[in-house]
Design goal:
OB fold (Dihydrolipoamide Acetyltransferase, E2P), alpha/beta, Rossmann fold, 17 strands, four-stranded antiparallel β-sheet, 28% helix, 4 domains
Length: 381
């Protein structure tokens, strides 16, 4: 059980443990445009789906096998245990330009942070949430891969200043970047706050920020010419390299954790993570943690009216009024939520954590953002 606290420090003493590909991979279809069809044989690294946004990275098979099912949630691959892999792409010899960005996107990289130019490039090297140690682990064990990613990012963005933000007192270094220490206390690890700490400004247009996890993905693609096929997750204090699409059930079995009936399994960290709806759910690129809340440790879920205590406002680093925004979202007043600063929220989860009434404030906020995004996409179509 993960004890909730605010410190982002972690006591690392082991290296990343690889998890073998399971017999079945479940690729979540949500927000993807499928390219593979049922019955199709796929090699390791073969493209399965594209991202509908102009910058989002494609999704690839983490193991060879056959697409045996597609339902409303997942595309399922039955793995054959073979090692047939797609041909590598020589990314390093490509010149800077649209073709390079498109190739990186086709290899699974979200290229939004690498498009255009930036006066300042910030690398967020803080662990994203308490209890998660992925950033520190990658900086400690695989800085050569992160360096390859940084070299490519600098080639694309040509920043005047590059800064590696790490927890105060840490000695990590990357060539071409100055290291700046930040107090390792949540929510100081969130991108918006890291940028403010480094530049002294809020949301400066000339600054881009990427995490060390993003740069690690980019570095692996550059060095191997193969797409992103796994992610690193912290589970119970240890870090694991997990093939994308690995069902949570397989992961828990492999690491020896057995949830009991009624427990909540959460993907992500303690403040921003989301409960999984099924243990068959597959791990995605953006996941960095997994933990369990025993049923005895959380109160019964019920509709909870706001009691106007103001705790959420006092704890909001974005200085918005979460109680107002959540009430707008609750009653489908999404544009009103926007007027109350919905988009200034960077989803730290502190409001919900402090709410005495246990209102699902972060979920309301994410719901309002998703509804507005969907309605605007429909208007544009
Ligand atoms: S999640 Fe809540 S506390 Fe955090 S920035 Fe958004 S509104 Fe503020
Ligand atoms: S912390 Fe919860 S109960 Fe208090 S004002 Fe905010 S939403 Fe309302």
């Amino acid at each position: 059980m993960l004890k909730i606290h605010y410190s982002l420090d972690s006591g690392l003493n082991e290296s990343i443990t690889p998890i073998d590909a399971p017999k079945v991979l479940n690729i979540q279809k949500r927000n993807l445009v499928l390219q593979a069809k049922k019955g199709q044989s796929v090699r390791r690294g073969e493209i399965l789906a594209k991202h509908p946004s102009p910058f989002g990275g494609a999704y690839h098979a983490a193991a060879s096998g056959k697409v045996t099912a597609i339902n409303e949630h997942n595309l399922t691959i039955s793995c054959d245990g073979g090692d047939e892999t797609i041909d590598a792409v020589d990314v390093r010899s490509m010149g800077v330009g649209k073709d390079l960005l498109r190739t990186l996107q086709d290899l699974g990289i979200d290229v939004a942070p690498y498009s255009g130019k930036a006066e300042t490039l910030v690398i967020n090297g803080l662990n994203p949430e308490p209890g998660i140690s992925v950033a520190q682990q990658l900086l400690m064990d695989e800085s050569d891969i992160i360096q390859a990613g940084l070299d490519m990012a600098r080639k694309l963005l040509t920043p005047g200043r590059t800064v590696l933000a790490v927890g105060k007192g840490e000695k990590f270094k990357l060539s071409g970047a100055e290291t700046v220490g930040i107090k390792p206390k949540y929510p100081r690890s969130l991108d918006a706050l890291v940028v403010r700490d480094i530049t002294g400004r809020e949301f400066p247009a000339d600054t881009k920020i990427v995490s060390v996890m993003d740069l690690h993905d980019l570095g692996r693609v550059v060095l191997t010419g193969l797409p992103v096929m796994d992610t690193v997750l912290t589970i119970d204090g240890r870090n694991y390299r997990v093939p994308l699409g690995t069902p949570i059930r397989h992961l828990l079995d492999t690491v020896g954790i057995q949830p009991s009936s009624g427990d909540i399994v959460v993907l992500g960290g303690p403040f921003r993570g989301e409960a999984v709806y099924s243990l068959d759910e597959g791990v995605t690129k953006n996941d960095y943690g997994l933990f369990i809340i025993p049923s005895s440790r959380f109160p019964k879920v019920q509709d909870a009216p706001c009691i106007n205590c103001g705790e959420c406002v006092l704890n909001c680093p974005a200085r918005v009024q979460p109680h107002l925004i959540s009430r707008c979202a609750e009653y489908d007043k999404f544009e009103m939520a926007e007027k109350h600063g919905l988009h200034s929220c960077f989803e730290c989860g502190l409001c919900a954590f402090h709410c005495f009434a246990r209102r699902p404030l972060l979920q309301y906020i994410r719901f309002a953002k998703a509804q507005l995004k969907a309605s605007r996409q429909t208007e544009q179509a």
